[in-house]
């Protein structure tokens, strides 16, 4: 029993089945960004996405007659604290929570990192650091550090929008805690030299944040009738054949082997920073197991293996991000 949880529950119901109480929400991540310059062109991008890993291989060409040095960054998805935290964070690391790794021409890059905590639009990083509070709102250690603060300091954090009172009875009497409520913004970055007239190959990988739901609304008879359903269909380009396949896959399943949703959001539009379009773009999406069902938006998609789908484009200008929906049996994911 918890006070203060009613608003969260109401929002979860209003958001639709993908954010029910037995769900985690995906955090959208994408590729590299940098200061726009006409000198550097992205001649190719080769992207691989699965529920376990995202890999990207870029080829950049400096088309000018001079070396160009610029800041290259990988913005991690923002993490927002909450009374009941539901966002999927794949790596238990306060800084590199996606397990980000990168190489340039095959050599590992020691990227720097910047983290900022904010609430109500105000940077509160120094304030939290001075109190000895970890900046990662998703960690149990952060809540423990908040609980250790003298209670006469609690109201100050609440007034700044940094914390929410969390009161409940877990069977041992009424408890009072603080839940983190700030936004954590993280970016890895480094200075990169692009030699005149030459190409540079940059590769990076990370673990995606995969949103999950125990069950799926797609198999329900009324799916597609509400405004929320229509937005969901548009986001993942869900076609009638996918709905039919999902309902067939759900029929007759054991009670403990229900269909689950897995959602991945890849921010493609970060690629629009580079000069012109991407000369050659290629993406491979792996649904995990042959029996899984997958739906996403794309043009010229080809099935290239039991679990893989690929699409390619030339002079590619990303106009929308890539959202992927995978349905899998609960037992097959264990």
UniProtKB/TrEMBL annotation:
Q: Where is the signal peptide?
A: 1-20
Q: Which UniProt keywords apply?
A: Signal
The DUF4424 domain covers which part of the protein? 20-325
Which Gene3D superfamilies does UniProt cross-reference here?
2.60.40.3680
Pfam families given for it? DUF4424
The answer to whether keyword Signal applies is: yes
The identity of this protein, by name, is: DUF4424 domain-containing protein
Which organism does this sequence originate in? Kaistia geumhonensis
